[in-house]
C-alpha cells in the first residue's frame, strides 16, 4: 500500500511536534535539576558553616572542610553562571525570532559549550563537596 504525500507530511509534522515537546520537557527538567543543585549546594554550605562548631568541638583534618566549602562555592558559582547564560540564550532566541538579531551558528554553539561546561562544573563540584563532607564527618565521628 502506497501512502499519499499528504499523509507522509502529516506524520512528519507530528514527529516535529513530538520532538519539540520532548525537547521542551528536557529543557525544563534540566533547568529544575540546576535549580535543585544550586539550592542543595547553598544549603549544604550554610549548614556546614553554621553547625560545624556545635557538632565537632575539635575538628580533625580541618583542611577537608575547607575543600568542602571551596567545592560548594564553585558549584554555586557555576550554577549562577549557568542561569545567567541560560537567560542570555533565551533573550537571544527572542531577539532572533523578532528579527532584532541575526542568527549565528557559531554564537549558538559557543553558548552551548559554555552552558555545558557550567553544568558539568556545577554537578561534579557539588558531588565532590558532598563526598568530602561525608569523609570529614566519618573522620571526626570515629576519632
End-to-end distance: 77 Å
Helix content percent band: over 70%
Q: What structural class is derived from the secondary structure elements? A: mainly alpha
Along the chain, the helix and strand elements come as HHH
Radius of gyration: 23 Å
Task: Give the number of helices.
Answer: 3
- State mean pLDDT (0 to 100 scale): 85
> How many separate structural domains?
1
Poorly predicted regions: none
How many strands?
0
Q: Strand content of the residues, in percent?
A: under 5%
Features:
143 residues, mainly alpha, 3 helices, 87% helix
How are the secondary structure elements laid out?
Layout lengths: L4 H51 L6 H36 L7 H37 L2
Fold and architecture overview:
This protein is an all-alpha fold and 143 residues long. The protein has one domain (34-141). The protein has 3 helices and no strands. Helix 1 (5-55) runs antiparallel to helix 2 (62-97). The longest helix has 51 residues, at 5-55. It is elongated, with a radius of gyration of 23 Å.
Summarize the structure.
This protein is an all-alpha fold. It is 87% helix and 0% strand.
Amino acid at each position: 500500500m502506497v501512502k499519499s504525500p499528504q499523509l507522509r507530511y502529516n506524520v512528519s509534522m507530528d514527529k516535529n511536534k513530538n520532538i519539540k515537546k520532548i525537547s521542551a520537557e528536557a529543557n525544563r527538567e534540566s533547568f529544575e535539576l540546576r535549580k535543585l543543585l544550586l539550592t542543595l549546594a547553598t544549603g549544604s554550605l550554610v549548614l556546614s558553616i553554621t553547625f560545624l562548631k556545635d557538632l565537632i568541638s575539635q575538628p580533625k583534618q580541618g583542611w577537608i572542610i575547607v575543600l568542602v566549602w571551596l567545592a560548594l562555592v564553585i558549584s554555586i558559582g557555576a550554577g549562577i553562571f549557568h542561569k545567567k547564560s541560560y537567560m542570555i540564550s533565551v533573550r537571544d532566541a527572542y531577539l532572533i525570532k523578532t528579527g532584532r538579531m541575526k542568527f549565528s551558528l557559531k554564537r549558538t554553539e559557543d553558548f552551548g559549550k559554555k552552558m555545558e561546561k557550567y553544568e558539568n562544573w556545577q554537578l561534579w563540584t557539588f558531588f565532590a563537596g558532598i563526598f568530602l563532607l561525608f569523609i570529614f564527618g566519618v573522620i571526626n565521628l570515629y576519632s
